[in-house]
Amino acid sequence: MQVIRQTLFTRRPRFFDSQLVVLWVALMAVSSWLAWQNPQLIERGAASSQAALHQGEGWRLVTAVFLHSDLGHLLSNAYMILLLGFFVHAYFGWLIFPVAAVVAGAMVNGLTILSYPPEHQLLGASGVVYWLAGFWLVLFFLIERQRSWSSRILRVGGVGLLILFPSEFQPQVSYRAHAWGLALGVVAGLIYFLVKRRWIQAFEVVEVEPDADSMNLGDR
Hints:
elongated; 65% helix; 4% strand; mainly alpha
């Protein structure tokens, strides 16, 4: 009987893997701080369907990711970006985080503002946070094959509820962005696994253990 002993996630991340993640968070902090000093930067960088889609200012879909309304908003997203971004970058590389994460953030913002009034402004990196979570959780479930199905379901479900489910609902929070981010992250994780399956499984260390029947035969 073959038993998987190690997977891609058995390798521990290196400190070097955190540098681009710290740079991302620093860019969020500096951009948001400058915008708090000069509210016109919020007006110029926020995403809305009127500006980004109808007026051709598509770059707002990206700049909105790095702007936050206040310190609490910034800290809540920065904490999750540091955590999830570190692990996603460490195991899957810079093409996923930060490159694909920027594209995903823009897509989430674009899909979200379609359902809002034209003048409604969208700010923050929560769409990227939920995209990273969906990407990571689905890949954890698919890669950690040394664990049982039930163990993986419990871990993914528990971690998902812990980090993604809000403790309280706030009217100023865009839960539509959260939903789009999570959905796109799950889809991206599935596509990544299908495309990179051979590379992922190359990290598996498999041992052969004798089953009960073969052991009994050997004792006769």
